[in-house]
Amino acid sequence: MAEGGFWTRVTRIFKSRSASNDGPDIEEVGARLDEAYRTQSKLLAQVRRGVADVATSRKRVEIQLASLRREIAAADDEAKASVARGDDAGARRALERQVALEKAAGELDDRHVQLRSEEEQLISSAASIERQIEDFRVRKDTLAARYSAAQARNEIHGATAGIGATAGEVGRVMADAERHTRELEATADAVDELMNEGILARPGESQDEALLRRFDEALGSVDAEPRAVEGDGHGPHQISQ
Predict the structure, then answer these.
(1) Domains and CATH numbers, the chain
(2) Would you state the pLDDT for residue 202?
């Protein structure tokens, strides 16, 4: 089990290195991260525009509410004045108008509460997105630096492995060259020896001249040897002429 786990880890390491070597380069990774950052920034801008639109709608509702409240107050004053004059019909019309205005004001007030809630939610979302974008920017810069460092390490490891493999091949080539050199040197020494012995002709020398030179050298070696001493081995002896 332990051996299997070991080889599994080794396989994973080589797969990881292979995947890393086949992966995108640092420029491509940086471009992807920058594009993601721009996309999130656009989303944040959209949310901020949404906040501005909702805030504008809320302001309009507030203006309409203020206008309705003024109209409601005016209708109430008119109803009271009509009652004071004894104008029951006028008072009834003023009260009916006041009721309609109060109903519209109630609906606008509900809308105002809804817009206020939407605005607060959008503001909270914008703040959250802004924090996420800032966190992403920091992570993006950190990841780009880590990716660059990891890529450099893999390149160094690959170069080191390549140097090791090349060194073995270079060693074999040098050994072959050295063996071939020794063979050439041995061949050259043998040729020199054969040429010196007259078996092979020297450069510019014919084969007959080589044989004659060998014969002359052989005679010279014989003449150089001491001459045999004549005598019976007991008395005075004399060198033969």
Answers:
(1) 19-171 (1.10.287)
(2) 59
